[in-house]
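Worked example 2:
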Amino acid sequence: MSGPSPSANSRAIALSARTSSGVTIVGTGSALPSTILTNADLEKVMDTSDEWIVQRTGIRTRHKIDRAKGEFTASLGATALRNALDAARIPAGDLDLILCATMTPDMGCPPTASLIANTIGAPSASCFDLSGACSGYVYALNVAHEMMMGVGAYKTVAVIGADCITPLMDYSNNGRSTAILFGDGAGAAILRATSNPNQGILAHTIHGDGRGWKEIYIPHDNDDFPEGVEPDPAKLGHVQMNGAGVFKFAVGTFPGVIQETLDKAGLTAADVDMFVCHQSNARILTAARERFGLPENKLFINIDRVGNTLAASVPLVLDECVRNGRLTLGTPGTEGQKVLFVAFGGGLTWGSSLWQL
């Protein structure tokens, strides 16, 4: 009697390697640079005012790295990850994968995730970076979840969002409309496989429109400027943004992606315990609260203190919600909390990730 074919045996082995029935988040952490850049500080170097900035963005302070103090994208990411591991009570050596969402890597090679793995002592972890601008962290959550639910051996995964954008700002009148918005930071979460099939992503979306790349870009030579834009050496290495165009994109996209995700999951806004949203503009966040009839404690805002931190934005909000008790992780009896992660950014990119924890 012949036994199973080699291909059948291989498939059986692969299926047995599925990591989990579900995925949950067991710990979070964050890191911010020591230097705080206030609106008053900006008033000293450009023609602006605290009143003007707060009225239009809601931002009062943001954090700025000091490389002389050893603050870089990887160092902030490593600190955030250490804090998340401590919160989860998991040693770094247990990590199977480190995924870092960033658009400001310290080097083109190696990946920032590899530098972080080396710093925290995770020599066996697979490492890679994901670049999705401000949507990067939400994209990374979706990717990590699918890798853990698929065929593989990923049981414990770190998802980091880390960006240091202030070195790419023009702190003069030429760049004032952009420089007032951004700050540096990092956030991290530890994802772990569970035997509970009710834990994990209920619905998600990932969208992009490459035609809008020119709304936010960082030129490094004259060929990087969009057609119709005169190359300007003074703009090389600095973030260029069409503020009005980006605001219009965000206003139209933000509520739409929330509703799309709720519809996919067959839920209403009232069913969601917390909305963890990218912090680009306080007015946009407040408008979303009003549109979906959300109480303030369901859509947390921290842009007033940290500004727009790109891929770090969503995990910074998540960690703060955990630390202040708005969300509870790993405590028996708290399972079933629904959290909707939403982001949009350069690319143009936008996406969502609705979790049941």
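Confidence is low (pLDDT under 50) at residues 1-19. Residues 243-265 form the longest helix (23 residues).
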